[in-house]
Design a protein that fits this description.
The chain has a domain at 15-109. Helices cover 76% and strands 0% of the residues. The longest helix has 44 residues, at 78-121. By secondary structure, it is mainly alpha-helical. The two termini are 39 Å apart.
């Protein structure tokens, strides 16, 4: 039996606007191909959020941020993990393969063409200033998405504690992420499970 991709025609929650009808696969592929051709540096998750959630409403904010959390803790490159998640949510297994391939198509061609030329201009100061500017923009994009995730995490004390502990242990104490992430993730899961139980009890009341 062929796998059916999750429907995105209904809103995820009462607080979020209705979602747009599920787009065609070629529409999704072309969007991410354009993102790949126009993007610089990191911070891509913020761009994905703007295009998929805010502009086109193909996914809800809660759904996207859930995938963003998974992309951070799973092995591999975070941005690629996020592409696989978006593709799967929109078009199942085929979407999970097409979306990353679409985004990488133009960058691979451009990198192959510019790779040799970079050695000729790398000594110019303006090249490094340009790359520093692109990196600053990437930090801004990532910070924007981090702020949106922060708003969701601060709605419950347990989630806020998990967020705060992760920040203190990694950013301040410099503990290894491989030891910190599982512990704080378990705390966050327990808090989220408690929220789900509370919502179910209210619904059954």
């Amino acid at each position: 039996m062929a796998e059916s991709a999750p429907s995105s025609e209904k809103p995820e929650s009462k607080t979020e606007p209705p979602l747009a009808p599920r787009p065609r696969l070629r529409t999704v592929a072309w969007l991410f191909a354009r993102i790949g051709a126009m993007s610089f540096g990191g911070g891509m998750a913020g761009w994905y959020f703007r295009e998929v959630v805010e502009r086109r409403r193909w996914m809800g904010e809660t759904d996207f941020l859930s995938g963003f959390a998974l992309a951070q803790i799973l092995p591999g490159i975070n941005a690629t993990n996020m592409l696989v998640y978006i593709g799967q949510r929109l078009h199942g297994r085929i979407g999970a393969a097409v979306v990353p391939a679409s985004l990488l198509f133009f960058p691979v061609l451009i990198a192959m063409g510019l790779g040799a030329g970079y050695a000729e201009v790398a000594h110019h100061p303006w090249v490094h200033r340009f790359l520093e500017g692109a990196a600053a923009a990437a930090v801004g994009l990532t910070s924007t998405l981090g702020f949106k995730a922060f708003r969701h995490s601060t709605r419950d004390p347990g989630l806020f504690v998990a967020l705060l502990l992760t920040f203190v242990c990694i950013a301040i104490l410099r503990w290894p992420m491989v030891a910190v992430a599982p512990c704080t993730a378990l705390l966050g899961v327990a808090a989220a499970w408690r929220i789900v139980g509370r919502v179910r009890r209210r619904g059954g009341a």
